[in-house]
Amino acid sequence: MQTLIIEDEKPAARLLQRKLEKLGVGVSTMLHSVQEAIEWFAQNQHPDLIFLDIQLSDGLSFEIFETIEIKSAIIFTTAYDQYALKAFKLNSIDYLLKPIDEDELEAAVRKFQSAQAKAPAFDMEQIRQMFQPPQPSFKKRFTVKVGQQIKVIPIEEVECFYSENKGTYLHTFDNRNYLLETSLDVLEQELDKQVFFRVSRKYILPMKAIREISVYSNSRLKILLPTYNEDEIIVSRERVSDFKNWIG
Question: Is the pTM of this model over 0.70?
Answer without folding.
Answer: no
